[in-house]
């Protein structure tokens, strides 16, 4: 492991802390643009190899790294391969121009996505969400000119809903009600829309999101309430295997510490998956920096960038 490679890990660490509640795509584009700029490689394949080495080192260095990193890195690597210039100096110039455009898009996402969400939010609405998501916070806090009643499910076992509730109570005049996850169904009949975030969006439009998202979306569907998911398109991700149900998530799953209060028998086991899989059919719209998109458009967006899908066992 070279000192030169380690400096990219430290740069990633520093930028990630600054962008803690923003888009990790900003961090990915900034770090890997520096990798490309400082590379001594004379070929595209050499650049891709360096990219892969740094990406693996970053993943190994941060066990809790969000899966957004995989999605943004996948798009960045595709951009390396798709830049068409035979002369290396012209290639670098063209590539960096495109990277700067994408960096500007990622930076503006926290402003453009709320702009696209606002037409769906009307004064007096009751909105349901869960846990904590910076884009959901931005979308709701930006509408200080009108008022909502917001149900926030606590988001057990990590219970980040309290963080969102406190932020909204501090910065807005919306009516905030924190509810236990078990009350989602009971509160759904008075809800107008469900507004959620996600970790990543798989290429069939399904969401890999904090556990409990599937429950909320399914109950919304039963009650005929629309579900809108706010996310930037840098979270669109093509997985290399078939995913038919949550058991197929493999290395896309993480564990959380979960142990209820009180005494319990030593033979009792506790469910501790961090994410669940919300089928695309339960999500009416993805609201991205490009505007509202149906979940069926994710495959098209990824195909434009990555080409047609292949699998490990093809």
From TrEMBL:
Keyword Protein biosynthesis: yes
A single GO cellular-component term on record: cytosol
GO BP term, pick one: translational initiation
Family annotation (InterPro entries): eIF2B_alpha/beta/delta, elF-2B_alpha_N, IF-2B-related, IF_2B-like_C, NagB/RpiA_transferase-like
Entry GO MF terms: translation initiation factor activity
Keywords (A to Z) from UniProt: Cytoplasm, Initiation factor, Protein biosynthesis
Cellular localization per UniProt: Cytoplasm, Cytosol
Pfam family, one: IF-2B
PANTHER family: TRANSLATION INITIATION FACTOR EIF-2B SUBUNIT ALPHA
Subunit structure: Component of the translation initiation factor 2B (eIF2B) complex which is a heterodecamer of two sets of five different subunits: alpha, beta, gamma, delta and epsilon. Subunits alpha, beta and delta comprise a regulatory subcomplex and subunits epsilon and gamma comprise a catalytic subcomplex. Within the complex, the hexameric regulatory complex resides at the center, with the two heterodimeric catalytic subcomplexes bound on opposite sides.
Membership in a protein family: Belongs to the eIF-2B alpha/beta/delta subunits family.
Name of protein: Translation initiation factor eIF2B subunit alpha
Provenance organism: Trichomonas vaginalis (strain ATCC PRA-98 / G3)
